[in-house]
Amino acid sequence: MTEKVQDPTTTFPGKEGEPARLILLRHGASGGSAEGLLYGRTDVDLLPPGEAQVRGAAKRAARWLNGAAEISVVSSPLLRARRSAEIFRAEISRTKAPAPGPGGAVVRENRIIDGLSELDLGDWEGETYEGLMERDPERMHRHFDNFLTSKSPGGESLSDLAARVRPAVEGLRVEGAGRVTVLAAHAAVNRVIVCDALGAPLDNFFRVELGLGSLCVIDYHGEVPLVRLVNG
Questions:
Q1: Nearest-CA neighbor of 85 among 98, 94, 76?
Q2: Is the pLDDT assigned to residue 181 strictly greater than 80?
Q3: Are the CB atoms for 215 and 3 separated by under 8 Å?
Q4: pLDDT band of 14, cuts 50, 70, 90
Q5: What is the C-alpha to C-alpha distance for residues 116 and 132, in angstroms, rounded to an integer?
Q6: pTM surpassing 0.85?
Q7: HSE, side-chain direction, 13 A CA sphere, residue 17
Q8: Are residues 80 and 49 in contact, defined by beta-carbon separation less than 8 angstroms?
Q9: Burial class (CB in 10 A: 0-12, 13-18, 19+), 4
Q10: Which of 13, 145, 213, 229 has its CA 20 to 30 A from that of 48?
Q11: Could you give the maximum distance between any two Cα atoms of the chain, in Å?
Q12: Is the dihedral of CA 205, 157, 23, 86 positive or negative?
């Protein structure tokens, strides 16, 4: 018989036996991705390569879903995130028995949460970084020097984004105790969640790399987050 080995380095005050597990899924490649277009609220669908990225993410997520009795799927209202959630849910439903009991899990229908929408880029929607820098380099340098509070004309600041994402995540943490929640959203949304879970100030936002179709895993032991995976 193999002796069970415990790792004391994973123990910390406040850690509970059944955390609320949050799996962050960034949507796959969508319209405008190949051209590097800046799309926040512009509603574009996934491209075939993006669908493949999400299916691959669902396969990689299997190890984080094993043993779950219930899996909830939530998403941003934007089409690229909704489609990613649908594909992800269909993929895990095919590989896990959709019923309670040993070896199975209840996979809940996708739920839309408005607060998880991508950063609103206002007049910069459909532009490229290169184009904006070429047209008004001084304005763009000022923007990146103060990116927490600066915003595009008619758009949101990063602080605005965080102010609506945080209550949504807190609700999922509270209601998801002992369960797994898959959150299909966007690069900016998921970066805010990861920074908060790490206790990193939001000015570290651009130090978190999250590729298309990437996964992050966070276990919330009560109010204490444990980051298990980033950009997986």
A1: 76
A2: yes
A3: no
A4: low
A5: 26
A6: yes
A7: 0
A8: no
A9: exposed
A10: 229
A11: 68
A12: negative
Residue ranges with strand state E in 46-159: 70-75, 106-107, 111-112
Instruction: Please give the pLDDT value at position 8.
Output: 73
Give the DSSP H or E segment for 181: strand 180-185
pLDDT of residue 99: 42
* Amino acid, single-letter form, for residue 204: N
Q: Are 80 and 30 in contact (CB under 8 A)?
A: yes
127-to-30, 36, 39, 122, 228 alpha-carbon distances in Å: 15, 8, 8, 10, 35
Span of 63-77, 90-104, 105-119, 210-224 with lowest mean pLDDT: 90-104
What does the pLDDT look like over 78-125, one tens digit per residue? 999 999 999 999 999 887 544 444 456 788 888 999 999 999 999 999
What is the phi/psi pair of residue 191, to 5°?
-65, -40
> Angle 183-89-170 (CA atoms, 0-180°, nearest 5)?
20
Write out the DSSP string of 16-49. -SS-EEEEEEE---BTTTTTT---SS---PBPHH
CA distances from 87 to 27, 114, 166 (A): 10, 20, 25
- CA distances 86 to 53, 103, 109, Å, are 13, 22, 9
